[in-house]
Predict the structure.
Amino acid sequence: MILNALSITMIFIGALSGLLAIWGGISSLILYRKWKRPAAPEEKSSLEDRSYLILLIMVIVLLVRLINWPLFYVTLQSFISDIEGAMCIFGVTQVKVDLTRFSETLKPITFFLIGGWLILHVLDRATKTSPLMRRKLFLLSIISLLVLIDSLGDIFLILGIAPESLVSCCTTITDILNRPTRTTPESIFGPQYAQFLQSIFLITHLALIGFVGLILRSKKPRRAILGFLCLFSIVNAVLFLLSQIEVFAPRMMHLPFHHCLYCLWQYVPDSIPLFAFFSLGTFSVGWGFTTELFGKHGETADLLPIYLRKIYWFAFFFLSASLMMLLIHLMID
Amino acid sequence: MASNKRWIALFVIFVIISLGSGCQGERKSIEGRCDYDGAKIEPLYAVYFTFQDGTEKKFCSIACASLSFPELKSRIKEVVVVDERSGTKINASQALFVESEVVTVPHVKNRIHVFANKEDALNHIQTFKGNWVENPFLL
C-alpha cells in the first residue's frame, strides 16, 4: 500500500460508506416490504421516523460517493511518483489491471444511479404525501449494494497497489497501431477515419444539444422521446471517447502520436472540466429519462415537468459548455 | 428567467476561465519533454531528430523515437543519439545498438542501448546477456 493522505482518505471513505451501505441497504429493503402493508397509526409513524433517519444518513453517504469518483483519480495520480515506469495514471492502473478496470467501470454507473436517485428524492421531498417513498426505498437498496461493491473495490485496490511496482505506461499500449480505438473506426471509415470521427462526433453532439433544446421548448415531452434521447446520449458519449482518444487528445497535447487520455488530463489540465462538463451533461440527459420513468406517481405528476425542465437545462448548459471548451482549444491550438 | 441568466453568466465565466488559463500556459509545461509521449527526458537516453527545415524533435528513448520514425522519416535530415557510456551525442549511423535485459526508460520498457565504442558495447553484451540490433533509424 502507498501511504499518503489521499489513500488514507479513500480507505476511510470506503470503509465508512461500505458499512453504512450494508445498514442502509438492509434497512431500506425491510422498510420497502413493510411500507405497503396496512398498519396502525403508531406503527406507520414509527416507519416514517425510521425512513427519515435512513434517508438522511444515506443521502450523506451517497453525496460522499459522488465526490469519490474524482477523488479516485486524484488518488491514483498521487501514486505516479511511487510506481516505477508510471508517467501518468495509466501506469498506476497497470499495477492491478483487472480491479482498476472494474472500479473504473463501476464508478460512472454508480455515479449515474446515485444522481438519478437523489433527483427522485428531491422531487419526492417537494410533495406532502411522499408518493415515491416505496420506489425510493427499493432503488436505495439496489444502489446500496453497488456502493458496497464500489467501496470494497476501492479498499482492495488502494491496499493492493504496492510501492516500487514496475509497470509499462501508456505509450506501449495506447499508441500501438492495432489499438481497438483505431482499428474499429478504420475498418468502417477507411484510412481517413480520424476526420470522419471528428465530424461525426461534432454532428451528433450538436444534434444532442439541439434535441435537448427542443425538449426544453416542448411542454410535455413523451417518455419514448426522452428514452431515445438517453440512448442517443450514450452513442454520443462513445463517439466522444473515440474522438478524444484518436483526434482531439493528440491535438490538444501537441503530441500527434500519443493517444492517452490520462496524459491529456495531466498535460492539459483544463481538459478535466471539459470531461466533467461532458459527463454531467450526458448524465443529465439520462437523469431526465429516469426521473420521468420513476418519478411520475400521484402528487409528483404536477411537479415533474418543472423538474424535468431544470434537469434538461442542466444538460443543455453542460453539453454546450463542453463543446465550447473543445472548440476554443482547437481554435487556439 | 433570472435563473437562466445565472446559468448563462456561469457559462460565460467558464469559457473565460478556459481561455485565460488554458492552452498557451499549459504548452510550456510540455516543452522540454519527449515529443512522442510528453515524458521527462533523461539526457543519457535521449534521441534527437533534425529535420530538413532546421527544426528538431527530441525523444525520451529509442522506443519513442522508433515509434515516431516511420511517419517522420521523409523529412528527417539527421538522427542523433547519446552514447550511454560517455554521454556524448553521436550520429545514429555511427552508433552501435545493443538490446539487453537492462531497462533504461521504464515507462516504455526500453531495452535498447547506444554505444559509440565497440568495446563498451561488447562489455555490455557479455555482462547483461545482450545482442546486437540494427540501427532503427536508417535514413
Summary: Chain B has a mean pLDDT of 86. Strands of chain B lie at 47-51, 56-59, 76-82, 89-91, 96-99, 112-115, 131-133. Chain B touches chain A at residues 4, 7, 10-11, 14-15, 17-19, 21-24, 26-27, 29-30, 35-40, 63-64, 67-68, 71, 106-109 (CB under 8 Å). Chain B is about 35% helix and 20% strand.
